[in-house]
Amino acid sequence: MFAFLGAILGTAVGVLPGIGPAMTVALLLPLTYTLDVTSAIIMFAGIYYGGMYGGSTTSILLNTPGESASIVTALEGNKMARMGRATAALATAAIGSFIAGTLATVLLTLAAPWIADFAVTLGPADYFALMVLAFLTVGALLSGSAVRGLISLSLGLFLGLVGTDTLTGQARFTFGIPNLGDGIDVVIIAVGLFAVGEALYVGSRLRHGALPLIPVSGKWRTWMTRNDWKRSWKPWLRGTAIGFPIGSVPAGGADVATFLSYATERKLAEEPYKKQFGKGAIEGVAGPEAANNAAAAGVLVPLLTLGLPTTATAAIIISAFQTYGIRPGPLLFETQPALVWALIASLYIGNVVLVILNLPLVGIWAKVLQIPRPYLYSGILVFAGLGAYAANFTVFDIGVLLVLGIIGFLMRRHGYPVSPMVVGAILGPMAEEQLRKAMAISQGDPIILVQGAPSIVIYAALAVFLVGGLWLKRRRRRFEEVDMAADTDTSTMHAVEADIEAETRRD
To answer: DUF112 domain location, by residue (predicted)?
Structure first.
């Protein structure tokens, strides 16, 4: 029941324009405070998967990706919708998400206990190396500019240090304000940066008028033809095979997975269909959507086994665990086995609920997209304020929320990503704790940080991830430039044809 409720809420909020999974999860997190821990985490899993799926509807019908991982879906899906094939694009996205999510959850079930057993053998220096890996890859790869990503990460680390030092008992960066003695709640950081910052940014650029929504027609049972099924099933499987391992590594995430899946499908497409890429190829929707949802399950591997959030959404999920005094990591499978396996079981149920709900109800979600932007974002601000107040029931937190929202607005205005900031705020205190433990063991000798074999392997992997990730970003930028050039050429050709036709009529 809670998985069903979470899937409905996650889809309903995630389908709104400009709202990605991270913002969906941050907004709905306060709703779980009144539940017991197992029910809350199960509902949270439904919200997570529902928010992931909702972004595809917005990308296809409005060409408005709620997150960077949905950009590839918008590239082909919106063009399919303009050709009158919105139903086929939505169907292949829904079915691909179900297949990829289910297969990836099976892999999570098999891999997580083994990784947890291995993680128990790691020492403080190895954990610190893992967190450095997460810091640098998230900061450098989750933004258009590595420098701006690292600046955003540094701001998050600063927010994570605000409060009282656990070892010395000294106040740090509290500026004499008693309310900051316990630090800034991660939920307030996430809601402020994502929800309030986005609402202020959209409000500053708000344009009046109805959204250019593409209508959905036809019965869902007849959305996909036999040829569509034939062209989609291989991309679904390939997307799963690409998305899960990339989502599982600390430098992964859905962005890289969706781009790799799109590039793979473009290269492997049969000759009659290869020319459709950039104009509405169904493979370009099926593969990336499967990779996106497989990576979403893969992200839970480092989160549950190592306690490492590799995406902003994962960082907010960790904050949900911390709300109940639970710390994800290798001991979680021993100390809270019922909770972990209930969470994984709810992922299976959530996948089934999503595909049952979203195929017949996509017309209703399309109606939700017609909510006027002023009403939509004013409602988001109200729920964000209520969520911040519910964290500690103090008005001071609402003021902190507003300040963080203004920071989030300024970051968006000047092109700085907010995801590394949230990850830094979560991982900063953990990294500090592991570093202090390692230095205490070595009596202040920093050589311990690079002595163990796991640490050396992790730092070597960091170099590979950074080089490979930057190369992939350059390739993605080149693809986008080629697609934009193709669109420009097409527009120019249509304009020339229109001018010729007008001159012919005048003659």
So the answer is: 1-422
